[in-house]
């Protein structure tokens, strides 16, 4: 298993590499404030893009919002924190993740309040698709999460 994991990861997983991954995906000092500002700004913008994309029935806008959205970061941080057994990191990842979900819902709700009352979102194809997920959607989400974890776990892939 060691050779396979090193091949998959791109090298040995030592303390330096664990520290690098920790710095990339966990919300901790010394850059906590900057990372949180970046996270909330991107999340708010991505939520607005997604909401307007749904209302406009634009798959491209919804996909663009998914690319911009940083919500996968605290999810991967939670998995990492669990794997290393760090309760403080688990708690902070959970807080950022739950706060991010609440923010995305709140932004969507506020934008929906501003939409004209004659606009019926139940007639929009993108909203119908997003509110009736199928097994294939779950599988796509799992593959996306694995791709993100793979990219963060490798120095030579994460920037792409």
Feature tags:
about 160 residues, mainly alpha, 8 helices, about 0% strand, globular
Structure description:
There is one protein chain. The chain has 160 residues and is mainly alpha-helical. It has one domain (2-153). 74% of the residues lie in helices and 0% in strands. It contains eight helices and no strands. It is globular and about 60 Å long. The mean pLDDT is 82.
Query: How many angstroms does the end-to-end distance come to?
Result: 27 Å
Specify the number of helices: 8
Q: How many domains in all?
A: 1
Query: Strand pairing plus helix content: what structural class?
Result: mainly alpha
Q: Which percent band covers the strand fraction? A: under 5%
Please describe the biggest sheet, giving its number of strands, its sense, and whether it closes into a barrel. Answer: none
Provide the gyration radius in Å: 18 Å
Helix content: over 70%
* Nearest-integer average pLDDT: 82
Number of strands: 0
The 3D shape can be described as globular
Give me the strand/helix succession. Answer: HHHHHHHH
Give the low-pLDDT segments: none
């Amino acid at each position: 298993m060691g050779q396979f994991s090193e091949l998959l990861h791109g090298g040995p997983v030592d303390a330096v590499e664990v520290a690098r991954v920790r710095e990339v995906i966990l919300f901790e000092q010394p850059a906590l404030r900057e990372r949180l500002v970046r996270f909330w700004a991107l999340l708010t913008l991505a939520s607005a893009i997604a909401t307007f994309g749904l209302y406009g029935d634009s798959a491209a806008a919804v996909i663009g919002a998914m690319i911009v959205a940083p919500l996968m970061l605290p999810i991967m941080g939670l998995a990492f924190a669990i794997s290393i057994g760090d309760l403080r990191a688990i708690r902070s990842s959970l807080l950022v993740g739950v706060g991010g979900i609440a923010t995305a819902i709140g932004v969507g709700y506020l934008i929906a309040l501003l939409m004209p009352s004659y606009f019926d979102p139940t007639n929009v194809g993108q909203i119908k698709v997003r509110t009736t997920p199928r097994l294939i959607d779950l599988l796509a989400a799992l593959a996306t999460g694995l791709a993100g974890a793979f990219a963060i776990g490798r120095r030579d892939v994460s920037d792409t």
